[in-house]
Specification:
The chain is mainly alpha-helical. The protein has three helices and no strands.
Length: 66
């Protein structure tokens, strides 16, 4: 059974969240349904926020990469 350490590493990596944001925007671009498109854009915005917060947290707290 895998440990949780790899997931922690991903969550603390702002690049992980930026990649998720790019994926959500790509899906949004291919989606025809306006409501689905809006939801995917909001999700992308949330992932971008998580990326910024992760970077800021690491900068302020001096959190090492795992």
């Amino acid at each position: 059974m895998p440990t949780q350490k790899p997931m922690i590493k991903l969550i603390r990596n702002e690049g992980y969240w930026r990649d998720r944001a790019e994926e959500a925007l790509a899906i949004s671009a291919e989606t025809r349904n306006p409501e689905c498109k809006r939801i995917m854009r909001e999700l992308a915005d949330t992932y971008e926020l998580l990326a910024r917060l992760t970077a800021e947290f690491k900068s302020v707290a001096g959190t090492p990469e795992f």
